[in-house]
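Lecture notes, part 5. Sequence design as translation. It can be helpful to think of inverse folding as translation between two languages: the language of shapes and the language of residues. The source text, in structure tokens, appears below.
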């Protein structure tokens, strides 16, 4: 009998990481894959990226709009309550052998609560990680305690999940799909990118900057520091900005970034396909900002990451990552350092061979096992 897995996706970033795995699951004769899209995918402001999923050949079983409003935390909580209620009803009406989710976003937290309350086994990717500047930090660990299978991206993260009381037999260090995607995805050529996004004749940096939601400094103040630093380089480099996630304060960032682009001739792109994002980075001088992709995926492309502020504080980092405070002069110094020869060691700590193949084997073994057991707390 075919096993039924539902994957719930809420953002372009995590879908991009999962795309190759979803294709493999969809083709597997022993698995019936269902995809549900929510969060940013359903919002025109973030590019209505559910269309990217459909254009990749997937059928989306349900679009669940949660009325995203990032103006303050109360609005975010309202979106979370809608999400939890909608998925509570969805899981009441549709039964699955497992629910698969990635990461730490607030809409995924609501999905996990709904799945756990329906006693649906949860497969969780990228648990055990630390990001001390964002509410993703405690959301991620809470999801871990509701999950039955844990696919961690490094051994340090695997050990942290076990430390949280999860049985070692359910926790696997598989590496990161994103690190492998950068090497194995079929990426557009520079000419193909230019056809869609304009000429790339001048050396350029990619910029992805999200709000820090657990610090006292407002997103407006932080993005002004960043933009003031970039203004020092506009004669030397172009800058291509990708829109922020739907976190509290993201609209403040977007407003100021768009004004900067108008004044300097830089480019702002709301959202891009997974392959386009990696290819744009591949041909760039490096990634500037505070995206997790800068630590996990970008090092596989052998370009530097200027990692700003505390949003990713606590994550494992390779030597191609330059950490700096969110201050104009620190950012300027880090951009200059990124173009030196000091970053020759580009080993990606998130990369392991055969990531996709191993994840697929672990998932199939998991869903064929007896999943009706009640989780116990593992005391190491």
């Amino acid at each position: 009998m075919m096993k039924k897995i539902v994957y719930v996706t809420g953002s372009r970033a995590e879908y991009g990481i999962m795309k190759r795995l979803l294709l493999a699951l969809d083709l597997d004769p022993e698995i019936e894959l269902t995809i549900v899209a929510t969060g940013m995918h359903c919002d025109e402001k973030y590019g209505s990226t559910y269309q990217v999923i459909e254009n990749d050949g997937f059928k989306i079983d349900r679009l669940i709009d949660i009325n995203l409003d990032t103006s303050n935390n109360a609005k975010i909580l309202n979106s979370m309550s809608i999400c939890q209620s909608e998925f509570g009803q969805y899981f009441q009406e549709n039964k699955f052998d497992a629910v698969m989710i990635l990461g730490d976003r607030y809409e995924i937290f609501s999905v996990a609560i709904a799945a756990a309350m329906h006693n649906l086994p949860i497969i969780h990717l990228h648990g055990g990680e630390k990001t001390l500047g964002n509410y993703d930090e405690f959301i991620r660990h809470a999801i871990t305690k509701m999950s039955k299978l844990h696919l961690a991206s490094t051994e340090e993260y695997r050990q942290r999940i076990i430390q949280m009381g999860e049985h070692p037999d359910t926790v696997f260090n598989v590496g990161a799909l994103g690190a492998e995607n950068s090497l194995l995805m079929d990426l557009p050529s520079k000419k193909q990118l230019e056809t869609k996004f304009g000429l790339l004749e001048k050396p350029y940096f990619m910029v992805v900057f999200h709000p820090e939601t657990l610090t006292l400094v407002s997103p407006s103040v932080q993005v002004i520091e960043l933009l003031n630093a970039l203004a020092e380089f506009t004669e030397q480099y172009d800058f291509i900005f990708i829109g922020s996630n739907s976190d509290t304060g993201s609209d403040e960032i977007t407003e100021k970034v768009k004004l900067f682009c108008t004044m300097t001739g830089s480019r702002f792109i709301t959202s891009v396909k997974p392959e386009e994002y990696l290819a744009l980075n591949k041909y760039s001088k490096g990634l500037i900002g505070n995206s997790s992709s800068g630590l996990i995926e970008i090092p596989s492309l052998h370009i530097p990451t200027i990692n700003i502020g505390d949003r990713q504080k606590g994550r494992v980092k390779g030597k191609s990552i330059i950490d700096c405070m969110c201050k104009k002069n620190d950012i300027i110094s880090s951009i200059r350092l990124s173009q030196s020869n000091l970053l020759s060691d580009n080993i990606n700590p998130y990369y392991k061979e055969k990531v996709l193949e191993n994840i697929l084997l672990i998932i199939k073994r998991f869903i064929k096992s007896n999943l009706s057991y009640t989780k116990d707390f593992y005391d190491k």
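The translated text above is only one of many valid answers, since several sequences can fold into similar shapes. Residues 150 and 278 are 26 Å apart (CA to CA).
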